[in-house]
């Protein structure tokens, strides 16, 4: 960059697609590299311990001000800053607004943008559409787990919550376990629009999946499956409302990918399941930031484990960190046919990692619109 002039690259959604944001195999490799940097400590996120998911702004349940929004399902704004070192060497922040009412307007629940910044000056390098980027990195993180933990001959996957997140997790699963032939889809009901649409999507996108079943219960979605993805938009607050999985339904050696609400019996989690977290320190940050029990606010299983640790019922050593596994510090499998509950919290370093790769692709290919911030700053 030729300072003091500052230009940056604007990438709309079609630009992002042209620059390769949907390359799931490369996204999985990028996430794996990011996790190795995380374990080495070559990163920063927000919060007191440098591992915060982000800064969330919510609205009150009631307000005397007529223009102020009020609380509603998935209604929030979130800023998610991070720096990632290594070959990425990039700072950035993802900013989004979320509101379930968006769907009535033909909009996605969340609308996301990512800004990439020079790590030294803070000057913007890119401003990009991040809905697809965020969806793909969200799918790729379970993909890293499926690559390393799912049985190599996995043939059946269960989907509980057939939304956008599950589509990208399925894409990741097919990228690393192409032998999958059966999919079981559990929506809000067997006749739900989302379940039927997901079945159509699967049939059109993955012709190698020969057996597509829409099921009515969590039990049906779990039984005989090697990989289970739980990605519902469940309301938080009442733990009893979270999707419940009974141990007796689970196939030996099954892998659960849990980027959203999920509930297992404590006895199973404490004594027989193997808990793996994408970044243990993220869950420690949530435990510090949220009112106890944090699981009522953040419904991911590893958050419940942190609550159990706080209560003195579980030891911190019972949670394995993905980075420790990827770097060989602990074994990929501790025993044969272990059942793994893999928690995925979502981190801004993931957005910065995949955003940097797509940005560099766009530069090489001449994709996007170059915008000028200033030639000479008026207030330097």
Automatic annotation (TrEMBL):
UniProt-listed Gene3D superfamilies: NAD(P)-binding Rossmann-like Domain, ornithine cyclodeaminase, domain 1
Family annotation (Pfam families): OCD_Mu_crystall
Any one Gene Ontology cellular component term annotated for this protein: cytoplasm
SUPFAM superfamilies documented for this protein: NAD(P)-binding Rossmann-fold domains
NCBIfam families linked: PRK06199.1 (NF004848)
Name recorded for this polypeptide: Ornithine cyclodeaminase
Organism: Anaerostipes butyraticus
Lineage: Bacteria, Bacillati, Bacillota, Clostridia, Lachnospirales
């Amino acid at each position: 960059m030729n300072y003091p002039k500052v230009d940056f690259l604007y990438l709309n959604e079609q630009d992002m697609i042209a620059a390769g944001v949907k390359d799931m195999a490369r996204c999985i490799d990028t996430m794996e590299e990011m996790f190795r940097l995380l374990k080495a400590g070559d990163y920063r996120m927000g919060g007191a311990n440098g591992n915060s998911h982000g800064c969330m702004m919510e609205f009150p349940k009631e307000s005397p001000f007529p223009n102020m929004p009020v609380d509603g399902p998935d209604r929030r704004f979130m800023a998610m800053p991070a720096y990632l070192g290594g070959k990425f060497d990039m700072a950035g922040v993802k900013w989004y607004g979320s509101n379930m009412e968006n769907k009535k307007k033909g909009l996605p629940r969340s609308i996301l943008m990512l800004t990439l910044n020079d790590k030294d000056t803070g000057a913007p390098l890119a401003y990009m559409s991040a809905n697809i980027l965020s969806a793909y990195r969200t799918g790729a993180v379970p993909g890293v787990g499926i690559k390393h933990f799912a049985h190599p001959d996995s043939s059946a996957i269960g989907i509980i919550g057939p939304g956008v997140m599950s589509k990208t997790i399925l894409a990741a699963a097919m990228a690393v376990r192409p032998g999958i032939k059966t999919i079981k889809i559990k929506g809000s009901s067997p006749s739900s629009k989302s379940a039927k649409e997901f079945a159509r999507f699967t049939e059109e996108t993955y012709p190698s999946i020969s057996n597509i079943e829409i099921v009515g219960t969590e039990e049906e979605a779990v039984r005989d499956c090697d990989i289970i993805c739980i990605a519902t938009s469940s309301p938080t607050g009442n733990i009893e409302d979270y999707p419940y999985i009974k141990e007796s339904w689970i196939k030996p050696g099954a892998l659960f990918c849990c980027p959203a609400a999920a509930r297992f019996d404590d006895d199973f989690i404490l004594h027989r399941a193997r808990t793996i977290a994408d970044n243990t320190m993220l869950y420690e940050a949530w435990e510090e930031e949220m009112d106890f029990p944090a699981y009522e606010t953040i419904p991911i299983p590893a958050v419940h484990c942190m609550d159990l640790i706080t209560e003195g019922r579980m030891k911190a050593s019972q949670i394995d960190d993905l980075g420790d596994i990827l770097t060989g510090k602990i074994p990929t499998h501790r025993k044969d046919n272990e059942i793994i509950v893999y928690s995925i919290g979502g981190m801004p370093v993931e957005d910065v990692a995949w955003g940097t790769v797509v940005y560099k692709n766009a530069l090489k290919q001449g994709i996007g619109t170059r915008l000028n911030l200033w030639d000479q700053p008026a207030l330097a």
